[in-house]
Amino acid sequence: MSLTRERIQSIARLARLALDEREVPVYQGSLSSIIDFVSELERADTAGVAPMAHPLPGLSQRLRPDEVTEVDQHEKYQANAPRVEAGLYLVPKVIE
Amino acid sequence: MSLHTRTLAELAAGLRRKEFSSVELARALLARIDASQPQLNAMISVTRDSALAAAAEADRAIAAGRAGPLTGVPLLHKDIFCTEGVRTTCGSRMLDNFVSPYDATVVARLKAAGTVMLGKTNMDEFAMGSSNENSFYGPVRNPWNPALVPGGSSGGSAAGVAARLAPAATGTDTGGSIRQPAALCGVTGVKPTYGRVSRYGMIAFASSLDQAGVLATSAEDAALVLGAMAGFDPRDSTSVDRPVPDYAAALNAPLAGLRIGLLKEFFDKGLDPENERRVREALAVYERLGATLREVSLPNLPLSVPTYYVVAPAECSSNLARFDGVRFGHRCENPRDLADLYERSRGEGFGPEVKRRIMTGTYVLSAGYYDAYYLKAQKVRQLIARDFARAFEQVDVLMGPTTPTPAFPIGAKTSDPITMYLNDIYTIGANLAGLPAISIPAGFVEGLPVGLQIVGPHFAEAKLLNVAHVYQRETDWHRRIPPAFAE
After folding, report:
1. Catalytic residue status for B153
2. Which residue of A38, A45, A95 to mutate against B (max B Cβ within 10 Å)?
3. CA dihedral of B239, B240, B245, B247, whole degrees rounded to 10
4. Closest CA to B456 of B432, B435, B434
5. What pLDDT is recorded for position A24?
6. What is the three-class DSSP state of B458?
7. Bridge partners for B293 per DSSP
8. pTM
């Protein structure tokens, strides 16, 4: 399979990744070969096989009791934020 | 007094006997780290001050008789584990400026056990890679030959242990990222059962596959560290609530009657004949120890690499959505609007292989392709897991090579992602099935180490460590030190 230039650009948009012009043909080549490679899975007979979402048989993810266990540490966590004001994360204006 | 050639168990005993102090030990190894860095590039951060403070505290604990078995023992942590107050980059420009506000559970447990972190090891960006060439901080070099890769993604941990910069290091293994570099660097690497070790504070790549483990110079040392890392953690929803056996106590059980299955599909045309010879010599050692060998076929195993390269990128594309330039990590300059902020921050922050996997994952999960790729891969994954389960009805452990070839030159496989992905052809199966596996040194091909891989049933870590340790009593491959780092 050969993915088109437009297809790569639309995947990048879905993934919120800015690609520069030089990157597009590179990913066109490598993603096409990866998709060809994984298409080998088609030949496996999986009729009636349940998809495996958890690697341990019979186990699924545990839920915790709905109790407050964490204390407010927003100042500590926001020390890593690129821009913060009055305890809020700043981003470009979304609504005019 | 050459401390670096001693095993972790010997160092721990020396500390308790007050033959040397934890501060002396930390200083000696920090000097080795500094000296090795221009050649190996095994480290992203060296935490000298906090290491010396922790070592001094360990010395006080030893003097006061409050020491545990690991008190004062130095370790390296892969830079995928969050460390409070210490930069945690995951090998990425995205997190170049990230100082973790908390400790991963693995880090907290090893800290509570009295270990001394000397620094954070280099790795493939977000643990995606098999050669450690995908790090924002440059490639790690193999201590046996600096023109070669150390393997990946835990390449800095493997190279660091091989070069005796520390007796042990933590690692993570999503498709072979502990075992493959352990094999290429000639050290012992353990990937535990999925859910055995907490993933809390371990930066996520593919959540149904990721597992933390340990690299050390011997199975005995790995057992000591794993015992302190493993166990239930309510902060990880996939952590399994099940007691941790005493791994060290089980090491010497005799192997007479052990049923070993040879993974037929691993002895394929891709396996280097000299690599195969070393593995078969190791199998002969097990026969001499009273084990029986039989060939076992796992017919769906050859599909494990394509299965992995659907499941892992799909989960990665979802997990890495959190890096949005808003709350932490890299943010682009002067974003025009919110979409531009997301797209450029991610485009600049992620390296080429991470972008490739995010886009592969986005594609296989996108409308119209989900059933053909993702759902199909999950079904094939089930078939592979069933193959393993059937095999373990007949044998106690499975054995085969860890990798098809010894270490390869830096740059040799970077042009074609599929060639690179096939490095993990023998390791991925255990991740898909959630099984524990270990790689141990089994000899050399032209001066380069070769790994023997042992896979066990779920939660059979004690058996794997026992099987590995008894071999290491009979052989000395694991004691060989790269000549450039012997002194």
Report:
1. yes
2. A38
3. -40
4. B435
5. 96
6. coil
7. B260
8. 0.97
- This complex has an ipTM of 0.96
C-alpha to C-alpha distances, B59 to B24, B48, B64, B116, B397, nearest whole angstrom: 10, 16, 9, 11, 41
Kindly determine whether residue B359 and residue A11, on different chains, have CB atoms separated by under 8 Å. Answer: yes
User: A38, B238: Cβ pair inside 8 Å?
Assistant: no
Write down the catalytic residue from B22, B153, B239, B345.
B153
Tokens of B272: 């280097």
Tens digit of each residue's pLDDT (9 = 90 or more) over B381-432: 999 999 999 999 999 999 999 999 999 999 999 989 999 999 899 999 999 9
Task: Give catalytic status of residue B130 as yes or no.
Answer: no
Q: What is the pLDDT of residues B230-287, one digit of tens each?
A: 999 999 999 999 999 999 999 999 999 999 999 999 998 899 999 999 999 999 999 9
**Cα-based distances in Å from B64 to B58, B116, B162, B231:** 10, 18, 33, 28
- From the first residue on, what is the mean pLDDT of each consecutive set of 10 residues in chain B (487 residues)? 92 97 98 98 98 98 96 98 98 98 98 98 98 98 98 98 98 98 98 98 97 98 98 94 96 98 93 97 98 97 97 98 97 97 98 98 94 96 98 98 97 92 95 98 98 98 98 98 96
* Structural domains of chain B sorted by starting position, each given as residue range(s) with its CATH number in brackets: 3-260+393-485 (3.90.1300.10)
Does residue B306 belong to the interface with chain A, where contact is any CB pair within 8 Å? Answer: yes
| Contact check, Cβ <8 Å, B331/A41 | no
Q: Which domains does chain A have, with CATH numbers?
A: 5-41 (1.10.20)
Beta bridge partners of A88: A85
End-to-end CA distance of chain B: 11
